[in-house]
Design goal:
There is one protein chain. The protein has 147 residues and is α/β, with parallel strands linked by helices. It has one domain (26-145): Hypothetical Protein Ychn, Chain: A. It contains 5 helices and 5 strands, in the order H-E-H-E-H-E-H-E-H-E. A 5-stranded parallel beta sheet has the order 4-3-2-1-5, sandwiched between helices. The radius of gyration is 21 Å and the shape is elongated. The N and C termini lie far apart (62 Å). The model is unreliable at 7-11 (pLDDT under 50).
Amino acid sequence: MNRRRFALLVLATSFAAAAPALAQTKSHKVAIHVSDGDTARLEMALNNVRNIKQFYQAKGEKVVIEVVTYGPGLTMLRADTSPVKGRIEAMLEGDSDLSFSACENTRAGMSKREGKEIPLIKQARSVPSGVTRLIELQEQGWSYIRP
């Protein structure tokens, strides 16, 4: 057997041995529904995020979490009134697998009622509808949690 064939055989064998380990690394996708503006409920949702992250990280498994806010739950992501803004900022530092979505339908209604633009924390991303975002995520196989 020449060197080139031997090198290819070693490479193929190494890949075949590693493939089962790579295939066994589980990945999870979790959508967390926040539609209540009560500070205790907002904290509970963030506790769920922390606990889910810690659980799967301890198992060596990847988890992606999206927190979807609408209705009174949009309070969580308001730059001017969020009681959990600092905690969210700390949680997001260096974590690209955590995101927060804000319902534009809710935001538009709040803006109209309050007579001013509703500012969001810089880490929030806008989605046209919080409810339909949750539907889309579930249709894509995401697990659904409502604290």
